[in-house]
Amino acid sequence: MLAISSVFLAPRLQRRFGTLPMMMLALTLFALDLGMMALFTENKIVLIVGVVLAGLFLGVNNTLITETVMISAPVERSTASAAYSFVRFVGGAAAPWVAGKLGESNVHMPFWVGAVLTLAAVFVLSSGRKVLAHVDDHDPAPHSVDEALAVTVGD
What we know:
Layout: H1 2-17, H2 19-39, H3 44-72, H4 77-105, H5 109-127, H6 144-154
Helix pairs in contact: 1-2, 1-3, 1-6, 2-3, 2-5, 3-4
Domain Major facilitator superfamily (MFS) profile: 1-130
Transmembrane segments: 20-39, 45-66, 78-99, 111-128
Pfam family, one: MFS_1
């Protein structure tokens, strides 16, 4: 679901609604999804559906956030990409341990913390949207879809 929404859905939504509104919507829906999983942590069906839906929201966000970072960073593209990847992978490395520690005290807690922090990210993004208002002021490269498909197939 993540790859499909990242390659096919995100560009369409971005063209129709804009980058920042879609990023905020996808993050908000992801936070609600985490909240749903927090409420029904004992229900395996809810968790399965929640994880699949999370892939949908995160796929859209991966595409839009990556593009926003590359467009708005005041440094060379390679430096922006390295910094962005560092943040993503450090978070990905720490998250299982943090979630495990939170889950030791309460199985619902990792989902609640994730939901609250995701909503905080929406707030930060919303309050800084003037700084990023220019991200939709360019035409996407004509090879973007072909390139995204090639990268996805390569994974």
